[in-house]
Amino acid sequence: xxxxxxxxxxxxxxxxxxxxxxxxxxxxxxxxxxxxxxxxxxxxxxxxxxxxxxxxxxxxxxxxxxxxxxxxxxxxxxxxxxxxxxxxxxxxxxxxxxxxxxxxxxxxxxxxxxxxxxxxxxxxxxxxxxxxxxxxxxxxxxxxxxxxxxxxxxxxxxxxxxxxxxxxxxxxxxxxxxxxxxxxxxxxxxxxxxxxxxxxxxxxxxxxxxxxxxxxxxxxxxxxxxxxxxxxxxxxxxxxxxxxxxxxxxxxxxxxxxxxxxxxxxxxxxxxxxxxxxxxxxxxxxxxxxxxxxxxxxxxxxxxxxxxxxxxxxxxxxxxxxxxxxxxxxxxxxxxxxxx
Length: 340
Known about the structure:
Site (Transition state stabilizer): 268
Region (Disordered): 58-83
Helix content: 25-40%
CATH class: Alpha Beta
Structural class: alpha/beta
Shape: globular
Order of helices and strands: HEEEEHEHHEHEHHEHHHEHHEEHH
Number of domains: 1
CATH topology: Rossmann fold
Active site: 95, 198
Pfam family, one: His_Phos_1
Radius of gyration: 20 Å
Strand order of the largest sheet: 7-8-6-9-5-10-11
InterPro entries: His_Pase_superF_clade-1, His_PPase_superfam, PG/BPGM_mutase_AS, Phosphogly_mut1
């Protein structure tokens, strides 16, 4: 069924005229007049959670930008330096519908691709953010998030090429090196990180949600799915997911805003819910009621050391979205002048 869905996706992409050049080897490879998905074998690595031992699928996480090194400010960076930093945009996108979403199965960290509907949702999300600047992209290690990010960027007016970074070995870095400075300037680095993966659902992964409710009871399944600190059998609670996702955001992504970079994160309902909890300072009770729709981008503005939520861009024709700040308005004006 996955093969059928991907062939359907290709038809959708042809009709949108999305792909015109080879982008290089990645988890999602974009090639001339179509695309293909290379699902890599992820190496499993154990890590200690505060509550239990979990096994998570780890993919390579790069900290090297295509055009400039992705680096954190020095430890001596002060609050004053944050206030002097440039205004920057943060876009959050929950991946489009996956094949297991369609089947009503618990997915968690199982690596499942998008459905035809999921592909269309990702493309529509890209249209909504087509005038918003993107300098860096972060995704989880799972293909449905990576597909969503790549498909969304095919719609961007800047027409830069997203390139997945590989630093898992010296050979990987060497073989994926770009030797043209002009080409580097036309690329956007994509960093994959297992810390942004969906919540690991343990023994529920692959089970039908309705059948699981019938077996364990609706109240127990609801408790596993919607409580903050109660995990499913041998799985992660939202609290445990938040520990890794927010820690990664603080250490690796937040410094990009201090440097004036505009960032897009394509991830999952629970990892994004965790990050939003941090950004909006939500309580554990408030975050469990937070619902995120698939394929609908959310926009934040980072300015003077703070993140301010601006809602969801309604579409490229919605001028109000780009009038949130002077910087976004000027960015759209320049794109209109250059590409129209």
